[in-house]
Design goal:
It is built from 15 helices and 23 strands. It is an alpha+beta fold. The N terminus and C terminus are likely disordered.
Length: about 475
């Protein structure tokens, strides 16, 4: 760690001068954009990044395999970074955070053992139960347990409960099936368990909960937690929540139906108990802890945990954080979040709505190589984060992944933020482009909360004192 990052005085948090962000998608673009704008941060290195991400001033992309711990460590040492922030879940499961910490680097991202909170849904249920955190009624099944899984499906149906089937491992946000009826649930059970070995969980069967969803993501230092602004993701491919599940087709923040006080209460009843349980097991958690929640009539219930910032939630959350993020990230990585840090970090008083533009074929096999038009026009009045693009010979970009871009509109209320996002998204085109046109529409309407002005933009405010 450089002397700049080390230096701190009473009531201040040190600022990391050079930061390495691991990953190359829209979430990492938003992280790099946010960090590169902050005072005291001289350079943001993104590995592997992309040409689109590297177009941000003060950001440099370094091609590397993000799943190779030694390769990531070499980049961190060569760049002399003071902090590493791991974006996607796969490097966490591959032990990248463990290797970096073993070499003395401060890392935002849990070790592989704690990251099981995302990489195994059965483990998430186990930890939540031990921590006293409310989740849906559920059971896990391994290979050879098809009959037992079907019996549990029938039991849920007989109790009048809907049924959700979840693949136990990582599935890029696409391993969840919300079943419309008993017959479809029973028919799908073998697809999760066929060919799987007995013992390790492969399928989690849950009761279906009712209510709007919410994402409350907290920055954690092992014992303390401070939530970022809450957001809501739209998972299904098509308007009206129709079609297959995806990694996320859009998001918005803030949530008119989840106040800061309610989010702070969630940190106390969900995040902090889970942190305590993971620490009790000898796997302390430092990083972003994502609580995916259902706001039921009986109060919030945990649907799942992720071990990182959400995507596309990060793209609408990070522009609204009204405290310098870099020093907080370093403090969390070192286990030193300030005791006086609020349960919910200060946010700007405006709103953000993000629309994901996806390639033809997504969420199956996306088509690549389609030239993208209209980027400059879209960026004139919105943020455009690259997720799956590649530079095109002669200039410009082409599609190079499933979710290609996230277009974020900002405004004094959700209605005007949504209008700006829609207009910017309309400016972008390529053959086979897929998108939703109802992101944040659930809070629109005459007299609805989405049309209420949220106030003037708040200035960035330090937490725990001014940055060094």
């Amino acid at each position: 760690m450089t002397s700049r990052a080390r230096r701190a005085s009473r009531g201040t948090l040190p600022v990391p001068r050079r930061v390495l962000v691991v990953g190359g998608g829209g979430r990492e673009h938003a992280l790099a954009w946010c960090l590169a704008r902050e005072a005291g941060v001289a350079e943001v290195v993104v590995a592997p990044g992309s040409a689109g991400i590297a177009s941000v001033g003060g950001v440099r992309a370094v091609p590397v395999d993000p799943l190779d711990p030694e390769a990531v460590l070499a980049v961190a040492r060569t760049a002399a970074v003071d902090l590493v922030v791991i974006g996607p879940e796969a490097p966490l499961g591959a032990g990248v955070a463990d290797r970096l910490r073993a070499d003395g680097l401060p890392v935002v991202g849990p070790g592989a053992a704690a990251a099981r909170i995302e990489t195994s849904k059965a483990f998430c249920h186990e930890v939540a139960a031990a921590a006293g955190v409310r989740m849906a009624r559920a059971r896990a099944f391994g290979g050879g347990e098809e009959d037992a899984a079907r019996a549990f499906v029938r039991a849920l149906d007989a109790a009048g409960r809907g049924i959700v089937l979840k693949a136990d491992g990582l599935a890029a946000g696409k391993g969840v099936v919300v079943c419309d009826d008993l017959a479809s649930a029973l028919a799908l059970v073998p697809s999760f368990l066929h060919g799987r070995p007995p013992g390790p969980p492969a399928l989690v069967v849950e009761e279906r909960l009712a209510g709007p969803e919410a994402s409350v993501i907290a920055l954690c230092d092992g014992t303390r937690a401070a939530a970022l602004p809450a957001a809501r993701d739209h998972k299904r491919l098509g308007d009206g929540d129709r079609g297959p599940n995806t990694g996320g087709m859009g998001a918005y923040s803030p949530l008119p139906d989840l106040s800061d006080a309610a989010a702070a209460a969630i940190v106390g009843t969900v995040h902090l108990p889970i942190l305590a349980e993971l620490a009790r097991r000898g796997t302390p958690y430092r990083g972003f802890l994502y609580a995916g929640l259902m706001l039921t009539a009986d109060g919030p219930a945990l649907l799942e945990c992720n071990a990182r910032l959400g995507d596309p939630e990060a793209q609408v959350i990070l522009p609204r954080v009204a405290a310098p993020l870099a020093p907080l990230l370093l403090a969390a990585a070192l286990g030193r979040l300030p005791d006086d840090a609020p349960r919910v970090l200060p946010a700007t008083a405006d709103a953000a709505v993000g629309i994901v533009l996806a390639a033809a074929g997504y969420p199956g096999d996306p088509r690549r190589g389609d030239p993208i038009g209209g980027l400059a026009a879209a960026a004139a009045d919105a943020l455009v984060f690259h997720a799956g693009t590649a530079p095109r010979a002669g200039g410009g970009y082409e599609t190079n992944g499933g979710r290609v871009l996230a277009v974020v509109g900002r405004g004094p209320d959700l209605g005007r933020a949504r209008a700006r996002a829609e207009a910017a998204a309309d400016a972008i085109a390529w053959e086979g482009l897929q998108r939703r046109r109802d992101i944040a529409r659930d809070v629109m309407g005459a007299g609805g909360a989405g049309d209420v002005a949220l106030g003037a933009r708040a200035p960035a405010a330090p937490v725990g004192g001014a940055p060094a």
